[in-house]
């Protein structure tokens, strides 16, 4: 791993710590879409939705908003799904859907 990559990763880790963020990674495709649908049903609104040419087949991302809270939801076929946001919200989602929340991304 080169120096620039290490610096970028450390900056991301620092941002997660400073802003009290957590992330759920490696969510299987079906479960990822189920979680998004469940969150929308619970009142989260889709504010940004990018699906790429194949519509979530290879990659896609969206942002969910509820009040002033924002969740970043990303999917790609290599790394599967991830959801990041405030630690309190992410830990609740992880518990609800039997997943593991992390205090920073794992590469």
Protein architecture, described:
This protein has 107 residues and is of the alpha+beta class. It has one domain (3-102): 2-Layer Sandwich (Double Stranded RNA Binding Domain). 36% of the residues lie in helices and 36% in strands. The protein has a six-stranded antiparallel beta sheet. Strand 2 (45-50) and strand 3 form a beta hairpin. The longest helix has 16 residues, at 3-18. The protein is globular, with a radius of gyration of 14 Å. The mean pLDDT is 92.
Summary, kept brief:
This protein is α+β, with helices and mostly antiparallel strands. The chain is built from 3 helices and 6 strands; from the N terminus they run H-E-H-E-E-E-E-H-E. The chain has a single domain, classed as Sirohaem synthase, central domain (Double Stranded RNA Binding Domain), CATH 3.30.160.
